[in-house]
Amino acid sequence: MDLGLKGKVAIVGGGSMGIGFGIASRLASEGTDLVIFARRIAKLEAAAAELTSKFGVRVIPVAADIRDQDESGRIVQTAIDHFGKLDILVNNDGAPPLGPIDSFDDVAWQKAVEQNLFSVIRMVRSALPHLRASGSGSVLNISAISAIQPIAGFGLSVATWAGLIGYAKTLSMELACDGINVNTICPGYIDTDRLQKVFAAGTESPESVRAKLVSEIPLGRIGSPADIANLVALLVSPAGSYITGCTIPVDGGLLRALR
Asked: What protein family is recorded (predicted)?
């Protein structure tokens, strides 16, 4: 199925590995040119070279720490300088540290807010004039299932991503008149480095923790970055343009709530 993404330009956060690389790969497979950013340039350059070689699209790597308030403008300007436009913004980064919620001081909380909320606000602010100019822009945020079904030990993520969801819902209403859709995906247990940290965080063996998590998932397996990327590609494409303001779990049935 051709999703109509050939010739589009997308910015993808965390594009060197994990979910971000999965998203970048899926968009590249549809013919989308990319700016990918993360903190480590070596991994970014390797990812960009792989995507260009495999799919024949243009991929520009940008080393950036999204917690820095000046970085969003530089990332967006890179897309404009190289491609002359911007159609899609995928906000995706890592996640704050795990631990008891009362163990974090103001510095930790401020870093979490910068990473999970302010970074998105700034990226959208920088990208918005260009998304409006595209006539059919799209903003897609990656958070986590813990934002809508809290998990003990994930307090920094839960609190800040809940704020992101409120921001995104409001943004979707305000940008609808510009033909820009805004959605948030909440991945469940996805096979990434972040999940490996969860496996290793307690006193049980990683194998035991993995088996326990799998037993909680009705579909009976840990998800892959491709499970997230396939939905992203739909939502940011013309085929998904009528879908906006949604917070969507992609979790193999893990979420128990009626919503």
From this structure: Belongs to the short-chain dehydrogenases/reductases (SDR) family.
Dist CA 129 CA 79 (whole Å): 13
| Orientation angle between helical segments 193-200 and 206-216, nearest 10 degrees | 110
Please check whether residue 200 lies inside any domain of the structure. Answer: no
Q: CA–CA separation, 99 vs 133, rounded Å?
A: 43
* 77 belongs to a structural domain: yes
Sequence letter at residue 9:
V
- Give the pLDDT confidence of 4-41 residue by residue, as tens digits: 999 999 999 999 999 999 999 999 999 999 999 999 99
3-state SS class at 32: coil
- The whole domain housing 35 covers 9-190+224-250
Structure tokens at 62: 């940008």
Query: Rg (Cα) of the chain, in Å, rounded?
Result: 18
Let me know if residue 183 belongs to a domain: yes
- 159 assigned to some structural domain: yes
Q: What is the CATH number of the domain that holds 89?
A: 3.40.50.720
The amino acid at residue 19 is I
Would you call 105 helix, strand, or coil by DSSP? coil
| Tally of domains within the chain | 1
CA atoms within 13 A on the CB side of 31: 9
Residue position matching structure tokens 């970055």: 225
pTM here is 0.94
The letter for the amino acid at 159 is: A
